[in-house]
Specification:
Hydrophobic Seed Protein, two-stranded antiparallel sheet
Length: 104
């Protein structure tokens, strides 16, 4: 495992611990998203036939630093987010040039 992968895994572990400790009482900014705001998009990225994202979700998606989120993509499912649903959500929100990590 390379040094960069180790650093990313450590960052994720710390993030997971912090999120577990603060639950929903406190919002933590990550990649220009407050963690509590992720709930606005949960329905649109879960299940077999998710509904279209709402305006609040699209506002969150547009404000996010998507490139910053790329290292966290492998861990999205642990937060109940289906990674294969992210690209369609972005397209429905008018974000037609997502970073390559969300293009596949």
């Amino acid at each position: 495992m390379g040094k960069n992968n180790t650093i990313i895994l450590l960052q994720f572990a710390v993030l997971a611990i912090v999120l577990t400790m603060v639950k929903e009482a406190t919002s933590i900014p990550i990649c220009n998203i407050d963690t509590n705001d992720l709930e606005k998009c949960r329905a649109a990225v879960t299940g077999n036939n998710p509904p279209a994202p709402g305006p609040d979700c699209c506002a969150v998606a547009r404000s996010a630093n998507l490139q910053c989120l790329c290292p966290y993509k492998p861990y999205l499912s642990s937060f109940g987010i289906n990674p294969s649903k992210v690209r369609p959500l972005l397209a429905k929100c008018g974000i037609n040039s997502p970073p390559s990590c969300f293009s596949a």
